[in-house]
Amino acid sequence: MKALVFYGNKDIRLEEDWPEPVPGPGEVKLRITYSSICATDIEEWQFGPLWVAHGEPNPISGRMMPLILGHEAAGVIVELGEDATGVSVGDRVAIENVITCGACFWCRRGESAVCPSMSVFGLQDDGGLAEFAKWPADRCIPLPESMPDEEAPLSEPTTVALHAVRRSGVSPGDNVAVIGCGTVGLLTLQVLKASGARVIAIDRRAEALDLASQLGADETLNASDGEYDAQVLELTQGIGPDIVFETAGAKTTPVDAIRIARRGGKIVLVGIYTATPEIDFNLVVGTEKTVIGSVAASSGEYAMAVRMIASGQVDVKPLISAKVPLERAISDGFERMIRPEKDVFRILVGSG
Ligand SMILES: [Zn+2]
Ligand SMILES: [Zn+2]
Q1: Could you read off the pLDDT of 128-173 as tens digits, one per residue?
Q2: 101: domain CATH number?
């Protein structure tokens, strides 16, 4: 089969004759309909391997690179392995991409999002940038009739947003700021609106802010003129936001997030940081702010994300910037994502 294989730093290859996966016990074989390319894939390609299993095999999958990328994926079940239950051949599904060990200190406390053995489809095991994949049947989330295949891979970044919002403990009526209006920022905004919060969207790009307004932001704030503390205060009756979500992942944005949160407020860091910010921790101590991190998702949140998209609470359509076949995933996908005038949210790879 055709597959996009990650061999290491700046080395992704389209393989024409890669072996097709064979489903083991409890697993299914899927024909991939669409996968989306994420900023994480670009970071792996340009700066990695970071998260992709390398050096020693992942303890759950037993795999390490070379691996097929693609952790945001959907497909149609074409074959059931021995004892695979709960799904049938022909089902359209989204791939819940995280497998945790179930036995470690964290898994047993219900904090599986930080399981140190975690295996993620397309990062620690073969993923969806291929014609076929295999995955456990109980991690395949059937798509509601009304949900097109194109939207299903976007369930993955939606779970990231959903997990972050659930960790924040947001309440209806809270004033919330979201820094960064990329894919995860715009999904966080929509999950927050569904939770009854009032949301201020912050970015440097006018088009991203237009889209934020269209997707429900109560206020938008253009941060391209430097510090914007005064404007945030003005929008929050001189108090500051109860919660600030940092999704931009830039060098200074986490510091901005901590600074603009109200006294006693909360900061949720969702970005992945390639630069190390400098911060005066008195910003946290002197005002009793709470800073929390959020990564991936917990079991059950994937099905919630699929439901929120299918019900229209989260609209992923504006985040699909292009659709390209697997053969052109490198030239029209990965290479387009690193252009300096990057004008895309998610690029879908596949032919449906
Ligand atoms: Zn991703
Ligand atoms: Zn575990």
Answers
A1: 999 999 999 999 999 999 999 999 999 999 999 999 999 999 999 9
A2: 3.90.180.10
Domain region containing 327: 3-142+316-349
200 shares its domain with 254: yes
**Residue 113 reports pLDDT greater than 90:** no
Q: Which residues surround ligand 1, an ion (CB under 5 A)?
A: 38, 40
Residue 98 Cα to ligand 2 midpoint, Å, equals 11
201 alpha carbon – ligand 2 mean position (Å): 35
Q: Confirm whether 299 is domain-assigned.
A: no
Q: Model confidence over 288-307: pLDDT tens digits? A: 999 999 988 888 899 999 99
Strand, coil or helix: 349: strand
Ligand 2 mean position, distance from CA 186 (Å): 30
Which bound ligand lies closest to the C-alpha atom of 114? 2
CA of 185 relative to ligand 1 center, distance in Å: 13
| Residues measured by CB to lie within 5 Å of ligand 2, the ion | 100-101, 104, 107, 115
Which pLDDT belongs to residue 342? 67
Verify that 191 and 263 share a domain, yes or no: yes
pTM above 0.90, yes or no: yes
Please report which confidence band the pLDDT of residue 340 belongs to, taking 50, 70 and 90 as the band edges.
confident
Q: Ligand 2 center to residue 109 CA distance, Å?
A: 9
The Å distance, Cα 221 to ligand 1 centre, comes to 26
Residues 283 and 245 in one domain: yes
124 Cα–ligand 1 center, Å: 13
> Above pLDDT 70, what percent of the chain?
100
Mean pLDDT across 259-278: 93
